[in-house]
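Bit of a strange request maybe. I'm writing a small parser for structure token strings and I need a real example to test against, not something I typed by hand. Could someone generate the tokens for this chain?
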Amino acid sequence: MAFEAKKRRGVIVYLYHLRQSKQLRRYGNLQYVSRKMKYALIYMDEVDVKKTVEKLKQLRFVKAVEISNRPDITTEFSKQDHQAYKLTEEDQEKFS
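Reply from user aminoacidic:
Good idea to test on real output. This should exercise your parser:
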């Protein structure tokens, strides 16, 4: 039986008060709570994100909810991508 990693996604939940931040544990893994900026970072399974975000938006103590875009960003860079960004003549003189 091989280990299979579940796809996860981060959800940022902005709060009115931090008192209720412990209640967010039931919606996923509460990873971080910012006291200064009043937000919490929750990680949850990719499958449950849409349903859980709708539930979070209905809570009275939640100001706003944002879904992390990090899994959607490509992290593979090739030489073809480098060619898209060409140095100007001025920059080429600096590096030569």
